[in-house]
Structures are given as structure tokens and as C-alpha cells.
Amino acid sequence: MRVLGTLKGFATESTNWRDWRWPERYAFPGETLRSLAPHGLYALCACEQALADARLAAGELSDGQTGLFCASAGSPFLLHHYLGQMYEARGERGNPLGVVSSIAGTLNFNLAAYFHIRGAVCGFVSACASSSHALGYALDEIRLGRHRRMVVVGAEETHAESILPFAAMRALSVNPDPATASRPFDRRRDGFVGTGGAVALIIEEAELAVGRGAPVYAELAGWVRRAMGITWQFLTPRALG
User: Fold this and answer.
1) Structural domain boundaries, residue 161
2) Is residue 10 part of a domain?
3) For a Cys-Cys bond, which of 34, 54, 134, 187 suits 71, CB 3.0-4.6 Å?
4) What's the pLDDT band for 234 if we cut at 50, 70, 90?
5) CATH code where residue 89 lies
């Protein structure tokens, strides 16, 4: 591995949340941060951005008609740290929030608790298809009439524990040029460039977005689950109303 993606404005190298740094425009209480992994912090910030862009107040997510689907592998970084503590102490002590902040479901229950989401909450762990699965099943929730709005979140970390194992698979690019190392649709690509971060999407019934004047970027037309992947159908943005 020669090139790594970075997150500007964030410093999450420490296993202690008190040492983390993030953009000043975001303010989160310590009781929330202490049960988060670094990618959980990224996800919180992404959700705040998505809500602001969708012209939604955080309190509107607790209406019982909004669900949350998340996609993540969890935090190998914190899992490695807490397991090391456990072995060193011979199992006699450990961080009580170690499980909550490190396993694959950490985004689900942390974000659901923070935003007081009362609808369906589910996590997806299906490797590179995780976020696509979360988005597809969220669309199904709306079409089946179970929810009117879904928040879909995907997040991963930029720590060695999350990225370096792919080097053993020879899946990481060895191209030293940051301008050309990441080229997923080029037949000459030699692997992917590891990084972390988060994305949050708000998908909902069209009349909800139109009714509050929210920007509409696209309409989901459908998706197809296949044995070896996922096929999506998107419609170009159009005026709704």
C-alpha cells in the first residue's frame, strides 16, 4: 500500500474519545461519544449534514414513521484494543462499553439512541455490498408502507486494523501516485485505495420532501438482488409535485 485516503478535520488516532478532534461546528455530549467508535463519530457528523440539507429537524426522526438502516464492519481498531486489555487483565476487568463501541452493530444502536428513532433499526454487514443492501431494503420499507422515511448510513474507519488486512489479499493499490491510484472503472486498476469516512442519505416518500421544500436529487426506481451483486435503477432528478 502506497496511498491512503485521509479525513480532513478529524483526529481519531486515540482509543480514548476525549482525545479525538472534529470540526468545531459539530457538538456532541460526552455521554454519546463514550460509546462510539471513530467511524461512529464520522457517521454522526454525516447525519447532521444530511438532516440540514434535507431541511429536517433531528426531532422529526422520532415520529415512529422513520427508520434507520446502517452498514459497517464495526471497529477492528477498538476491538483489538479492548481484547488486548481483556487478555492482559486475564478477563478480570474491561471497559463496560467495549462491546457497544466496537461490534458491527455499533452504528445501529448508537445512532438510533441519539436521534430517538422509533421505527425499524437494522444493520447490514455484507462486505462491499453492505451500504447498497441497506439502501435497497430501505426502499422496500417505504414501498411496502412500513415507513415514510428512512435514514441510511454507511461508515468505516481509516485505521490499520480496517485496511491493512486487504494488503494480504493483494487487494490494495500499490500505485504511489495519489492522482491515479484510485481508478475503480479503469481496466488497468491494480487495487483499491483504503480510507474511512461516512455517508448518510435521507430517502422518503416524494410528498414529504416536496412539502417542506427539501432539495430532491434523484428518484430510486428499483433494485435487483443478485447472487454476485446488486443492480440499481436510478431516475435522473426531476421536478416532483
Assistant:
1) 17-215
2) no
3) 134
4) low
5) 3.40.47.10
